[in-house]
Amino acid sequence: MSTEVRVPTLGESVTEATVATWFKKPGDAVAVDEMLCELETDKVTVEVAASAAGTMESIIAAEGETVGVDALLATIDTGAGAASAPAAKSATPEAAPTASKPASEPTTSVDVMVPTLGESVTEATVSTWFKKVGDTVVQDEMLCELETDKVSVEVSAPASGVLSEILAPEGTTVDAKAKLAVIGGSGASSAAPAAAAATAPAATAGKSIEDAPSAKKLMAENNLSEGSVQGTGRDGRVMKDDVQKALASASAVTAPSAAAAPRAPSVPDDASREERVKMTRLRQTIARRLKESQNTAAMLTTYNEVDMTEVMALRNEYKDLFLKKHGVKLGFMSFFTKACCHALKEIPEVNAEIDGTDVVYKNFVHMGIAAGTPTGLVVPVIRDADAMSFAEIEKAIAEKGARARDGKLSMAEMQGGTFTISNGGVYGSLMSSPILNPPQAGILGMHKIQDRPMAINGQVVIRPMMYLALSYDHRIVDGKGAVTFLVRVKEALEDPRRLLMDL
């Protein structure tokens, strides 16, 4: 029989952890309370011990994988075969190699299942297989990559062997409990040594660190060899950004020679100059949700402008001291987050949502900060932003932004927002109308800070100005409330002391 090894309670408000290190592998004998693996959370490191003695049967969550509370990490075989494992270890030297060999190799087929996808995620699409049927695989080696609505999930081999069957080919949509493939143990015992011997020189010359699946896919598409790209990830792992930089460098080198070569005449053919690429699940979800927002909400946008003189002066005066004390840079987003939280208290309908025939008012602010990533727009949520200090907000924005760019945000980190801020100004946008992030009733659009002539006390002066846009659901937010909200944001930014006085 098998005993499940699950994620223990991580602590109050901690909902997920990352598998840092496995101290055992399938086939190893384990004793009760022996250390199996180590988990890392945002604050602490958690050790996971064996709850029963036996033999490590399979590892479900590989190193580097993010898991939720009570998620299945591994299974321990506590049957009769497991009980004899310790005895095999104490056999005579002559018998030791024979006795220990089967313990490290699977003797039956092992199913490759869809890993934990995250709260409320029920399906994923198989985007890329890195192995084909008949290939020898090593435990924890990357087999395929799945795409969900928000993130990409890497699937590792739960055991060593031969990939005997692929049940979900590329492009297949699978549910959260689906079987993806089968790793055969019988073929592994005979094929693995020959394959290892044939590939020994290549393995020695290469590296054992598995590159990011997105990087491997990009290298394959551009015919780049594994050793031609310098990795900057952990332990030299090649990331997608590394491949993109290598391609950019190659383009810069070959551009002059390509430009000098005469271009052969060709018959105009539009079809030959087009490229058809299937939309990712993330892009499909963005398209669907934005269109649903327009079709469902009575969306309207109102505009105002803010003089950024005081905020810029305050930031310039304290940015060095702020960085020295808090270890994070003082940006503009914390000022806007604070100003919006201040305005939402006065205009609560902007911080509400419609549920059937009810209006649900939120007595807290979970602030969504829209972030552009290479794969699309995501909105990580900073919870209870109204109770945070400037430093706490800046740290949260920096941490969420980095995780968004690396594609490491969990579904839980992008759910539950009550209001959203979108900063198109970082891309140079001067004016736009942001689309609501349903079911929220409001979203603030920030734009480029631009010096403009303004009439101040009868004189024309140059001031750093920014246009603000508030898109809102007119079903629950009236024009008066929307305009008042923007005015309060404007007042708080033009005189930041109002935030301290709660005015």
UniProtKB/TrEMBL annotation:
Gene Ontology molecular function terms on file: dihydrolipoyllysine-residue succinyltransferase activity
Domain Peripheral subunit-binding (PSBD): 210-247
Alphabetized UniProt keyword annotations: Acyltransferase, Lipoyl, Transferase, Tricarboxylic acid cycle
Residues of the Lipoyl-binding domain: 2-77, 109-184
Catalysed reactions listed for this entry: N(6)-[(R)-dihydrolipoyl]-L-lysyl-[protein] + succinyl-CoA = N(6)-[(R)-S(8)-succinyldihydrolipoyl]-L-lysyl-[protein] + CoA
Pathway(s) it belongs to: Amino-acid degradation; L-lysine degradation via saccharopine pathway; glutaryl-CoA from L-lysine: step 6/6
Annotated region described as Disordered, given as residue ranges: 84-108, 254-274
EC number: 2.3.1.61
GO annotations of cellular component type: cytosol; oxoglutarate dehydrogenase complex
Regions of compositional bias (Low complexity) in chain numbering: 254-269
Top-level enzyme category: transferase
Cofactor(s) needed: (R)-lipoate
Cited function: E2 component of the 2-oxoglutarate dehydrogenase (OGDH) complex which catalyzes the second step in the conversion of 2-oxoglutarate to succinyl-CoA and CO(2).
Record-given protein name: Dihydrolipoyllysine-residue succinyltransferase component of 2-oxoglutarate dehydrogenase complex
Species: Falsihalocynthiibacter arcticus
